[in-house]
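sry for the spam today, last one i promise. struct tokens for design, 451 residues
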């Protein structure tokens, strides 16, 4: 069973799309091979819910983070071999031989390039297979190595009796016709299954090295997954993975304290913090490194966010109604007793303050009773926070403060316990001179009209 994340959540957190600016998959995509890139994208689409599987993947990435290595092939050279090994050879060696011999005749008589290309592909494949064998030899295959299972499988493939000719062809640039027929038949027919397994391991290794190098370069850490019934989350030094020199914050949730209620002024960093939290939970369920100093979490069934809910003009939905439908969707999922992480950024900002107050209060209180789920909810309406503090004992009230340097606001981006009393909206408006602009425009129009 895969950890569930819907399209709205993917968009809110900018998870997918390797060509999208600042997407999370793009952040990690330092793969070299086409197969490695596809595997990375598959991992992003299928996060895990089994703590043992998550921790196993984490241990592999962590292992490669300690190895001073780089992927041993370039994109261009492996692409040729990747395409060659992916194609099926003839089941009959005589048919295969006749086909290659015919290419050789065309090459001699008409300078046709197919024979020359095949010769190059096989030479490149031999060279790459030898280099990969030498590369793998540097790793220890003892049982303490979390990658030992794949290392042992690689060594079994290379010890296959039909592959013992390989080392003798190191450095070969041109292969005689009959050897070419034999090698092509062995690689693409007799050993086709083994070559596909080996290719899959190369793709997996490509991803492992890429992810581990990103983790080292950016200072990410690896989370520890716990069974779902532990119902626990602890993050130290959480920050957004795409923000350089970001300020870290600590978060913790348990069953009897399962709601983080966040207040703070605009620009104080609430949305960024909430996205950071959602991204870390998603990556942790993938077994990927997270942007935090330390993280331990109980696995959940899925993640839902409501951060940038768009209106829907085709369906005739206003922004407020789109928000309502989003909350309804999450409510239905929570009501099915699923263990979820839910992130709501400023509920019901598309309606008037009175309705937003009433709806945020009643819906947040109702959600909080589902102690198997973890919630992070933000609001501008601090009166809601004060009322919830009287009604509920399973809330953590936190805020991101604004410090005033005279009339200029400064944001610390550092979480503080409690409920904010910051109300600097009008100060910011006045600092930008908006009222003066409007008044001066009106005054200028009046003068022009009089003249």
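last one done:
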């Amino acid at each position: 069973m895969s950890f569930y994340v819907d399209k709205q959540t993917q968009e809110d957190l900018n998870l997918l799309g390797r060509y999208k600016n600042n997407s999370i998959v793009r952040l990690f995509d330092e793969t070299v091979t086409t197969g490695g890139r596809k595997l990375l994208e598959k991992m992003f689409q299928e996060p895990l819910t089994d703590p043992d599987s998550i921790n196993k993947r984490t241990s592999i990435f962590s292992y490669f983070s300690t190895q001073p290595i780089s992927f041993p092939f370039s994109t261009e050279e492996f692409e040729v071999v990747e395409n060659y090994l992916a194609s099926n050879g003839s089941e009959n060696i005589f048919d295969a031989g006749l086909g290659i011999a015919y290419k050789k005749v065309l090459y001699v008589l008409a300078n046709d390039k197919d024979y020359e290309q095949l010769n190059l592909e096989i030479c490149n494949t031999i060279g790459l297979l030898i280099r990969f064998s030498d590369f793998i030899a540097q790793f220890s295959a003892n049982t303490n190595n979390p990658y030992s299972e794949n290392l042992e499988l690689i060594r079994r493939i290379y010890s296959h009796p039909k592959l013992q000719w390989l080392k003798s062809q190191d450095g070969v640039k041109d292969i005689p016709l009959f050897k070419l027929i034999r090698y092509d038949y062995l690689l693409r027919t007799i050993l086709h299954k083994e070559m596909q397994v080996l290719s899959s391991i190369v793709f997996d290794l490509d991803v492992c090295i890429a992810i581990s190098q990103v983790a080292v370069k950016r200072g990410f850490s690896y989370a520890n997954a716990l069974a779902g019934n532990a119902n626990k989350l602890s993050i130290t030094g959480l920050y957004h993975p795409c923000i350089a020199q970001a300020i870290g914050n600590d978060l913790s949730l348990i069953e009897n304290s399962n709601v983080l209620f966040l207040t703070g002024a605009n620009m104080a960093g609430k949305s960024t913090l909430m996205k950071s939290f959602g991204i870390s939970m998603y990556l942790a369920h993938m077994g990927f490194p997270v942007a935090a100093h330390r993280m331990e979490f109980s696995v959940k069934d899925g993640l839902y966010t409501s951060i940038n809910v768009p209106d829907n003009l085709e369906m005739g939905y206003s922004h407020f109604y789109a928000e309502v439908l989003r909350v309804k969707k999450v409510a239905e999922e929570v009501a099915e007793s699923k263990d979820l992480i839910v992130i709501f950024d400023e509920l019901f900002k598309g309606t008037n303050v009175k309705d937003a107050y009433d709806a945020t209060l009643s819906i947040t209180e109702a959600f909080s009773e589902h102690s198997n789920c973890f919630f992070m909810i933000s609001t501008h309406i601090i009166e809601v926070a004060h009322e919830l503090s009287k009604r509920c004992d399973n809330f953590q009230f936190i805020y991101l403060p604004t410090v005033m340097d005279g009339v200029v606001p400064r944001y610390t981006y550092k979480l503080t316990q409690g409920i904010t009393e910051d109300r600097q909206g009008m100060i910011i408006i006045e600092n930008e001179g908006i009222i003066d602009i409007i008044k001066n425009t009106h005054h200028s129009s009046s003068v022009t009209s009089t003249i």
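DSSP finds 16 helices and 13 strands in the chain. ok im logging off now
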